[in-house]
Amino acid sequence: ARTAAHDAQERLQRLSRIHSLEGLTTSIAHEINQPLAAIVTSGHACRRWMEQDPPNLDKARQAIHRILGDVDRASGIITRVRNLTKGAPASTRPFVFNAAVREVLALSQAELQRQAIALRADLADALPLALADSVQIQQVVANLLRNAMEASAAMDVPRRSILLETLLVDDKIVLRVSDRGPGLPAGAQEKVFDAFWTTKHEGMGVGLSISRSMVEANGGHIWAEPRAPGGAVFAFSVPVAQEEAAV
Ligand code: ADP
């Protein structure tokens, strides 16, 4: 019973880490909005002091001082986020890649159903073990899947389908997520991975940038391709563990 309880607890912790990317983006938005709002307030105040006749330079100077302080605060937040996603992977160990992917899929079922999105998983047989931080890799998979769901949800129901594949390419495990959504914004194949680059009304544009940091910290690559005849493909690679093999 104790083992079962321990397993359940460990699973819970893993789940909350997979979902923490969403929490992270929300909290960055929240934290950055505060200094931004303060900058706007001080900017307006500054203009009022300048427009007075005669201008109150002393007050205007104070407002500019507050603005510079808030700019420092905002860039401090960004530095913290960057440090958070840099650094060495937390724990690099061999793991069964497809099993990790299935866990993420299981977590996404409810949302897929809610949005009437059909998902097909085509997972390669007999992949070697992956060598990476499995939780970070799961976060990346969850993020690509969430983007594919958001892209699909913009389409009519018959076009809401996602294909998730795993395969072995040149000694690396590759995961591909293809959707039939609106496709990549023109000329943005590389830009989508930049921090704070977003085309979504409520988007933060940090998901893919964090995903890229994580994949590269684990020795892999991440890329995007247009999908013919419409939609997008996002893929990343992960190194395999030498010696052992598993199904
Ligand atoms: P966000 O989802 O908050 O915008 P991301 O970094 O995850 O941040 O994505 C950045 C941008 O990349 C999105 O705003 C969108 O323009 C584009 N993008 C990501 N995934 C897809 C996809 N599956 N299909 C089309 N465009 C996508």
What are the main properties of this structure?
247 residues, alpha+beta, 6 helices, 7 strands, 51% helix, elongated, binds adenosine-5'-diphosphate
Describe it for me?
The chain has helices spanning 2-18, 20-51, 57-85, 97-114, 134-153, 207-217, and strands spanning 93-95, 118-123, 128-132, 161-169, 172-179, 222-226, 232-245. By secondary structure, the protein is of the alpha+beta class. Strands 1, 2, 3, 4, 5, 6 and 7 form a seven-stranded mixed beta sheet that branches. The longest helix is centred in the first third of the chain and has 32 residues, at 20-51. The protein is elongated and about 80 Å long. The two termini are 29 Å apart. Adenosine-5'-diphosphate is lined by residues 147-148, 151, 179, 181, 183-185, 192, 197-200, 203-209, 232. Adenosine-5'-diphosphate binds at residues 147-148, 151, 179, 181, 183-185, 192, 197-200, 203-209, 232.
Write the layout of secondary structure elements.
Elements: H1 2-18, H2 20-51, H3 57-85, E1 93-95, H4 97-114, E2 118-123, E3 128-132, H5 134-153, E4 161-169, E5 172-179, H6 207-217, E6 222-226, E7 232-245
